[in-house]
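Structure ticket #2291
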Amino acid sequence: MGARDGTPWLQDEYVIVGDLWQRRGRTVGIGDAEVREIAELFGRSPASISRRVGNFAGTDKPGTGLKPITGEPLDLWTNIRGNRAALERAVSQARARLSLLTNGMVLNQVDATGIRIVAPELPSVEPVAVVTKEAARQAEQTEALLREEFRSWRDRKGDRLRGISIETPTSRLRVDLYDQVTNVLIEVKARAERDYLRFAVGQLYDYRRYLDFEVNLAVLVPRRPTDDLMGLLKTAGVAAIWKAETSFADSENGRLLHS
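Resolution: structure written out below.
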């Protein structure tokens, strides 16, 4: 049994197994070398991979396999199964993301930058010291508390949100949160104001360029930004997530929060 058996399947996992099904059909079993390699990548048992191939058989050839796939994985599969080039590209991206998530570290193909999956930082329980950089320290504490509140709301089981540490040749970068289900890098800011949001956009762009796979971007703030600043984020290709009473809302009609 694999370490991740029993956990929900990610869309990236569906993509890779769908590709296996399309290339090799139902000829693959639990002893097959490719099945075992995929199982190791996923952290799942070979039997779970073989069963998922059966789900794809039931999807593409009703009545010949197991229960068809449904929901978002089906929507994604419907869009790419007829385009071999798109499927191969999706598989490459999926493998890069899963290598990071399951192995805990990958090396950037271009400059050997070290990228690690880490636990989200927890807020300090110590009071903020009154020093010359008081405002900056208060902002950091506000961000830490907001991050923890969002994490507790979004990831009650603790298996969805992670941080990412990027070791560059000259410094270490820390991504606040990475949602592995929706494939979103999230930067947390203490205020929904222009300077904070502009800074967040720059940070997210900086993080993204070190990754070997495509990723969505979002900024988490205490309240909804003004329409003008929402326009800024939209132009930059960055989504917004904000506190909404006892829960959270996003600028993507809930797509980032209800998957």
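Closing remark: Confidence is low (pLDDT under 50) at residues 106-112, 124-132.
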